[in-house]
Specification:
heterodimer; A: 356 residues; alpha+beta; 5-stranded mixed sheet; 4-stranded mixed sheet; 29% helix; 16% strand; globular; B: 186 residues; 6-stranded mixed sheet; 6 helices; 6 strands
C-alpha cells in the first residue's frame, strides 16, 4: 500500500528549459537546461538549479523569474505535475518550457519571491486542508518550528517520504476510511469508519475532502489526445476549489466519478450515484413530470448528449472512474493534503427537439 | 449618484460585486456610499451574481477607484472580500499605495489586531491578481455579532442580513461604510 504513495512521491517530469530569446545576449545562444522536476514540487524551486546555466548570458538587472509553456505564463503555486497533466493533453517528454528572468507579468501572475513565496503558499494550503478535514487549523498553527522546517524540507527534497509522514501524521489530517479503502494508516479504528466519527484523538472529522479541480471543456469528441485543443489561456480552465463530501450509501461504493460529478452540479444535476440510464429514469419519476408526453419529450432531450467526463488525470495517471474515491484520496493526495484532479469535460450538445 | 442593475438570480456560483467606486473624497473626509436599497430576493446557499455599477464624478485624477467582490469560500464556509484599486487612468495601485490609502484609524486598528490580513492572491474566477482581505475566525465573530439578537435566536438569519453585518465589520478596513438605514430595514 505504501508503494502507491511512494510512486506518487517520487514521480518526476523531465523538463527542457529554454531561455527566452529576448534575454539571450551572447552568441552562440545557450543550450536549454535539462532537469528532472518532482511532480509534487513547484517550478520556482528549480531556479537555483537552472540559473547557473544561463547566468552568463542574462542581460543586466534584477531577476524576476517566471515560466511559460507555449506562451502561457505558468502559475507558480500549482505543483509542477499538475501543470503538466493539465496543459499537455498528450504528454510531452521532455516537457519544453521557457524561462524568463525579466519582465514579470504582474498583471497576470501574483508575485513570487522565490522559495519563501512557495512555502507560504504551501503552508496556507495545508491550513486550508486542515480546516476542511478537522474544522479548524489548530494542528497546523501549533506545529513546532523544527517540525515546520522538516516538513518543508521533506517536500522540496521530495525524496524523503518517511520524514514527511513522520511530521505530517502529527497534523491528524488522517485518511478516509471506508470498507473500500485498504487503510493502513489509521490506527485503532474499526474497518468501517463513518463520517462524523471521532478518531483516536477525539477530533471529529468533518467528512469533507480537500479537492482542487481543474476542468477544461471541449465541444467535440476527439479520439486522439494529440487532437485535443491547446490551452492557450487560463480562462479556458475552470478552477474549482471546493471540498467533496463523501456520501456513503449502504453497500454502494462512492467512486471517483461520483466525486467529480458532485463538484459539477450544473452538468450533473441528478442525485443518482451511478452513471446508468436506469437510475436517470428513476430520478425523472421523482421529478414529477406531469404528462406522459412531456416525460417522453424530456427523455429525448436527456439522451447521450449529456455532459461527459472524458478524462480524469491524477498524478499523471488516468484511473478507471469506478475506482473507490477513498482509495484515490488516501494514495494520490499531494503533500499539502489536497487532491488535484484534472478533468476533461465534453459539454452537452444542445439538441433542438423536432416535435416542438 | 448610484445606479443599480439587478441580474437574474442563478444557481451557478458567482459573487457579489461593487465596482468603480470611490471610497474617499478629495478632502479625505468620510465618504458615505449610497448603496442599493434591497438585494436580490431568494438568496440560496451559493452567492448570486449582482452587478452594482456606481458612477461617481470626480475632479481629482489621483483618487483611487475600488472594485470590491464578495466571494464565498467553500473551504472555510465564510465570505471573503477581494478588492483592487486603480486610478482614473486605469493604472493599478500596488500594495503599498493601497495601504497608504486605507482609512488610518479603523484600518490600522483592525490590521494590527491580527484579526485581518491583506494578501495578494489570484481571484478565483478572474485569473488575475487581486487583494484579499481575510479575517481570522469569521464564523466565531459573526456568531458573536448575532448572539445578542433575540429574533435571530428564534428565526435564524437571512443571507442578506449576514452579509450586511459581515460587511459592516470587514468593509471598515477599506473604508466602506454601510448606512444605518440598511441595517435597520431588516
Amino acid at each position: 500500500m505504501m508503494e502507491a504513495r511512494k510512486y506518487v512521491w517520487e514521480g518526476a517530469i523531465p523538463l527542457q528549459i529554454h531561455l527566452h530569446e529576448s534575454e539571450v545576449t551572447t552568441l552562440p545562444p545557450p543550450l536549454p537546461a535539462l532537469i528532472l522536476a518532482p511532480r509534487i514540487g513547484y517550478l520556482p524551486l528549480l531556479v537555483p538549479h537552472i540559473k547557473p546555466h544561463f547566468s552568463s548570458t542574462l542581460p543586466p538587472g534584477i531577476d524576476t523569474v517566471w515560466f511559460d509553456y507555449k506562451g502561457l505564463p505558468l502559475k507558480w503555486y500549482i505543483p509542477t505535475g499538475i501543470l503538466f497533466d493539465l496543459l499537455c493533453a498528450e504528454p510531452e517528454r521532455p516537457w519544453n518550457l521557457t524561462v524568463h528572468f525579466r519582465g514579470y507579468p504582474g498583471n497576470i501572475l501574483i508575485p513570487c519571491e522565490g522559495e519563501d513565496s512557495v512555502k507560504w503558499s504551501f503552508i496556507n494550503s495545508l491550513k486550508e486542508a486542515a480546516y476542511i478535514i478537522n474544522g479548524n487549523c489548530k494542528s497546523v498553527m501549533n506545529m513546532s518550528q523544527p517540525d515546520q522546517v522538516e516538513l518543508w524540507r521533506s517536500v522540496i527534497n521530495a525524496g524523503n517520504l518517511e520524514a514527511y509522514i513522520r511530521v505530517s501524521s502529527k497534523l491528524k489530517l488522517g485518511t478516509v476510511g471506508d470498507e473500500y479503502a485498504a487503510d493502513l494508516y489509521s490506527s485503532s479504528l474499526n474497518s468501517r469508519q463513518s463520517i462524523g466519527d471521532t478518531d483516536s484523538t477525539g477530533q471529529v472529522k468533518t467528512g469533507r475532502v480537500p479537492i482542487r479541480l481543474y476542468v477544461w471543456s471541449v465541444n467535440e469528441d476527439f479520439d486522439d489526445l494529440e487532437d485535443a485543443p491547446q490551452i492557450d489561456s487560463w480562462d479556458k480552465i475552470s478552477y474549482i476549489n471546493r471540498p467533496v463530501e463523501i456520501h456513503g450509501e449502504e453497500g454502494k461504493c462512492f467512486t471517483l466519478l461520483d466525486a467529480v460529478k458532485s463538484l459539477l452540479p450544473e452538468y450533473f444535476p441528478y442525485k443518482s450515484l451511478n452513471n446508468e440510464e436506469s437510475s436517470r429514469e428513476e430520478d425523472k419519476d421523482e421529478e414529477k413530470v406531469p404528462s406522459e408526453n412531456l416525460s417522453e419529450h424530456v427523455e429525448s432531450c436527456y439522451s447521450s448528449d449529456d455532459a461527459e467526463v472524458k478524462l480524469v488525470r491524477i498524478q499523471g495517471i488516468e484511473p478507471k472512474l469506478e475506482i473507490p474515491f477513498s482509495w484515490v484520496v488516501n494514495n494520490l493526495v499531494n503533500p499539502e493534503h489536497f487532491l488535484h484532479l484534472c478533468v476533461c469535460l465534453k459539454l452537452p450538445q444542445v439538441k433542438i427537439p423536432s416535435d416542438t | 449618484m448610484c445606479k443599480m442593475q439587478e441580474s437574474a438570480s442563478t444557481m451557478v456560483e458567482g459573487y457579489l460585486s461593487l465596482e468603480n467606486i470611490i471610497l474617499r473624497s478629495i478632502e479625505e473626509e468620510h465618504d458615505e456610499l449610497s448603496c442599493p436599497q434591497k438585494e436580490e430576493t431568494s438568496c440560496s446557499e451559493k452567492e448570486e451574481l449582482i452587478d452594482i455599477a456606481t458612477l461617481v464624478q470626480s475632479n481629482c485624477s489621483k483618487v483611487p477607484y475600488y472594485d470590491l467582490h464578495i466571494i464565498y469560500s467553500a473551504s472555510y464556509r465564510v465570505p471573503v472580500l477581494f478588492f483592487r484599486a486603480y486610478y482614473g487612468d486605469g493604472e493599478p495601485l500596488g500594495f503599498n499605495e493601497i495601504e497608504k490609502d486605507l482609512p488610518a484609524h479603523s484600518a490600522k486598528a483592525l490590521l494590527d489586531s491580527k484579526w485581518m490580513f491583506i494578501t495578494q492572491e489570484e481571484h478565483p474566477y478572474l485569473n488575475r491578481p487581486w487583494f484579499k482581505l481575510h479575517p481570522c475566525g469569521t464564523s466565531e465573530w459573526m456568531k458573536l455579532l448575532f448572539h445578542v439578537d433575540v429574533s435571530v435566536a428564534k428565526n435564524g438569519v437571512t443571507v442578506e442580513l449576514y452579509l450586511l453585518s459581515w460587511l459592516s465589520v470587514v468593509g471598515q478596513v477599506v473604508g466602506l461604510r454601510i448606512p444605518l438605514e440598511m441595517l435597520n430595514q431588516q
